[in-house]
UniProtKB/TrEMBL annotation:
PANTHER family: STAGE 0 SPORULATION PROTEIN A HOMOLOG, TRANSCRIPTIONAL REGULATOR-RELATED
Residue ranges of the TM segments: none
Native organism: Anaeromicropila populeti
GO molecular function: DNA binding; phosphorelay response regulator activity
Described function: May play the central regulatory role in sporulation. It may be an element of the effector pathway responsible for the activation of sporulation genes in response to nutritional stress. Spo0A may act in concert with spo0H (a sigma factor) to control the expression of some genes that are critical to the sporulation process.
Residue ranges occupied by any HTH LytTR-type domain in the UniProt entry: 141-231
Annotated SUPFAM superfamilies: CheY-like
Response regulatory domain location: 2-122
Keyword terms: Phosphoprotein
Protein name: Stage 0 sporulation protein A homolog
Length: 237
């Protein structure tokens, strides 16, 4: 897994690199870390296609192109990358969510907090890069979990909904749930399982996903959904 750090302060950049390597030096997960002192330098590497990073740690306030502007450029090229912001100003946090930031860290950086956030980020990348395998009409398919909006159980079929496609296969809800990472997915109804990454709003008896898609939340699953989604949101804070 590749991590890019962009901070115009050499000292802080070095501190973050040290935290990353100390956090994962005993793990089986291989981590590669590159440091950049300006947004322009990192953007040039991304644009040339020299390196592809799964996680970006960006200082919001930098001379020239800011971390927020850099994040917008990253999002245009990669909707799935994890972006973590560091800042000294709380008032800039809201803007961070406009580019789907995974997390933000207030300066001065706390080593334990940074380690915890990094662990979550790596776990998130690993889980979303996993593939869901199924077979239908003698054809085998593999779809990245992160591309799946939700599942629907309809009679003997499991329907899989992506942003621009739909698949189906013969199966049961019980078997589906046993195969999913239920820290990312949540059941909202006897017939629906939703990817929490795509939830935008919750209106009591339904959730609204990105793209304006509504999925029902039944009374029987309302309490479970509320608690599960609350826990999911809290892990991102």
């Amino acid at each position: 897994m590749k991590i890019a750090i962009c901070d115009d302060e050499m000292k802080e950049l070095g501190e973050i690199e040290d935290i990353i390597y100390s956090c994962f030096n005993k793990e089986s997960q291989r981590i590669e870390c590159d440091g950049f002192l300006s947004s322009e330098e990192l953007l040039e590497v991304i644009t040339r296609g020299d390196r592809k990073y799964q996680i970006y740690i960006l200082d919001i306030e930098m001379p020239g192109m800011s971390g927020l502007e850099l994040a917008e450029q990253i999002r245009q090229r990669d909707r799935k990358a994890v972006i973590i912001f560091e800042t000294s100003h709380k008032e800039l946090m809201q803007k961070a969510f406009d580019v789907l930031a995974f997390h933000f860290i207030l300066k001065p950086i706390d080593k334990l907090q940074m380690s915890r956030i990094l662990q979550k980020a790596v776990e998130h990348v690993n889980s979303t890069n996993a593939l869901f395998h199924f077979q239908f009409s003698k054809k085998k398919y593999s779809i990245a979990y992160q591309d799946i909006l939700y599942f629907e159980s309809y009679r003997r079929l499991i329907r899989i909904y992506l942003i621009d496609k739909q698949y189906e296969y013969y199966g049961t809800m019980a078997d589906l749930k046993s195969r999913l990472n239920m820290s990312v997915f949540v059941q909202t109804h006897v017939a629906f399982v939703v990817n929490m990454e795509y939830i935008e709003t919750y209106q009591g008896d339904y959730v609204c996903l990105k793209g304006g898609i509504s999925v029902p939340v039944s009374k029987g699953y309302s309490k479970y959904f509320n608690q599960t989604y609350r826990d999911f949101v809290l892990t991102r804070m």
